[in-house]
Each structure stands twice: as C-alpha cells, then as structure tokens.
Amino acid sequence: MTAPAPFFLVTDNAREAALTLFAREPALLPAFVTLVCDPAGIEAIPTGARAIAYWAHARGLLAELWREQRSRLRVSEGWQIFDEITAWRAAIWRDDAPAAVPSAPLTPAHSAPSPTPAARQTRWH
Questions:
Q1: Is 89 helix (H, G, I), strand (E, B) or coil?
Q2: Is the Cβ–Cβ distance between 56 and 29 less than 8 Å?
C-alpha cells in the first residue's frame, strides 16, 4: 500500500475531521497528515504545500484566514488528495479484513450408499 504524499489538513474541529476523513481519532492520524487547527498553523504552511480544509462550521476566523491564504498553497490538488485518502482507506480496510474462512465441502468426504426403497405394494397389486 502506498501512502499519499504529505499534506496539511486545516480544520476548525480536529476530531470531526479525523473521524470523517480517516475514521480514526486525531492522535491516530497517519504520518502523512499534518493537522492545522489555529491561525498560526495556517500561516506556517509553506508556500506551494499540499493542503485541504475540512470545516465543521463554515464561518469563523480560521475559515476566513484560510480563504485569504489558500491562493499561495496548492489547493487545486484538493480533489486529488481526497481521492488519495479514499484509496488509502480502502487499502487499510482490505489489509485489515479477516482471512477468508474455507467453506465446507459440498459433498461429504465419504458417502455411504443410500438404501434402495422397496417397491410399494398397493391393494390392487
């Protein structure tokens, strides 16, 4: 499994973003994700870095600062990053899936001959 290229995840609710995008708590996010939850973190994102945003609340200082700063970042790759996350999650689920349990054989290993039914006698016979 290939992990996505590193990127920044900017959000106003770290837990909701982590659970929604990665199905795990923020402390258990994969190493290729850098979580940004404050204005100083947005300003510290290097120019040209890959970054996406997840908003629990559309309005707020953090979202406003993101809108101002995202022109210097590579946010046009946002959909590509979401596709990479989806592929990563699918690979994790595939790797964590239990091994297939062998099914029982369709026929018994040894079968005893079945008795032949006796001819039925009727009163007219």
A1: helix
A2: no
Residues 99, 97: Cα–Cα separation, whole Å: 6
Q: Which of 73, 105, 84, 76 is nearest to 8 (CA)?
A: 73
What DSSP string describes 22-86? HSS-GGG--TTEEEE-SHHHHHHSPTT--EEEE-SSS-SHHHHHHHHHGGGTTGGGHHHHHHHHH
- C-alpha 47/C-alpha 49 separation (Å) is 6
Whether residue 67 contacts residue 38, with contact meaning beta carbons closer than 8 Å, is answered with no
What spatial distance separates the first Cα and last Cα of the chain, rounded to whole Å? 76
Q: SS3 of 17, please?
A: helix
Q: How far is CA 105 from CA 30, 101, 108, 110, 111, in A?
A: 42, 12, 7, 11, 12
CA distance 34 to 81: 13
pLDDT digits (tens, 9 = 90+) for 72-123: 776 666 678 888 888 888 887 776 655 555 555 555 555 556 666 666 666 6
